[in-house]
Amino acid sequence: AWSPDGKSLAYTRKENDELALVVSDAAGKNPRTIFRTPVLDARIQWVDANRIAFATPPSGLAEGYVFVYSRASGIFQKVLGPVFGLQTLWSPAATRVLLSSTPRGGGRLTLTIYDPAGRGTQRLDAASFADKCAWGSEEEIWCAAPRNLAAAPLLPDQYLTGEFHTSDRIVKTDIKNSAAEEIFGEGDFDMENLLLTKDKKYLFFVNRADGTLWSFKLRL
């Protein structure tokens, strides 16, 4: 995971019975282990200059958790969980977390905005995986929203294993006004790795069905 300023790189590696968090410079040089945890299968995201989040693998059959490690204080604490099907995506300024979840058994998929400061949650109209979304700003989220979720009873497991492919439309949500707008609904794409350019002229995504890279021009 890259640091927000792009000057450092964090990665994990297994050391004995622990997961070690290593930080190096952008070239991968001068690595140093700064933290160890027994949560062996966690995936990391560099949240802000100080904090790095650890998320357990998502499953509709197992409860997931998110922990945050503070480099300044050395404190490792739980911020989310237990939640079935948990996937998360932190906003650019780390003031909010987009999370997708399911009931026990991996049924209906929902998207929710969570405020780590404890100011409540907000459920979004679009149903999707957090991994299929991208933040446009602190108040705006773009998601590839599947049309055919009902065809897969066990989510996100069947999607993650490749047993199930989605057919997506692109939906933009204004968080402040709770307004959702369909931006693109043509074709048959299973979109992932969404990337919105800073000027919001283009949205890039990978079609998971065949591994091709696409760009969608949003405005002239």
Describe this structure as you would to a colleague.
By secondary structure, the chain is mainly β. 2% of the residues lie in helices and 49% in strands. It is built from one helix and 18 strands. It has one helix at residues 157-160; strands at residues 8-15, 18-25, 32-37, 43-46, 51-55, 63-70, 76-84, 87-90, 97-101, 110-114, 121-123, 133-137, 140-146, 168-174, 179-184, 191-196, 202-207, 212-217. It has a four-stranded antiparallel β-sheet with strand order 4-5-6-7, with no helix packed on it. It has a four-stranded antiparallel β-sheet with strand order 8-9-10-11, with no helix packed on it. A four-stranded antiparallel β-sheet has the order 12-13-14-15, with no helix packed on it. A hairpin with a 4-residue loop joins β17 (202-207) and β18 (212-217). It is globular, with a radius of gyration of 18 Å. The model has no long low-confidence stretch (mean pLDDT 94).
Strand order of the largest sheet: 4-5-6-7
Instruction: Characterize the largest beta sheet: strand count, sense, and whether it forms a barrel.
Output: 4 strands, antiparallel
Task: Report the helical percentage.
Answer: under 10%
What's the Cα radius of gyration? Answer: 18 Å
Q: How much beta, percentage-wise?
A: over 45%
How many DSSP helices?
1
Provide the low-confidence segments as ranges.
none
Q: What's the order of the H and E elements? A: EEEEEEEEEEEEEHEEEEE
Mean pLDDT figure: 94
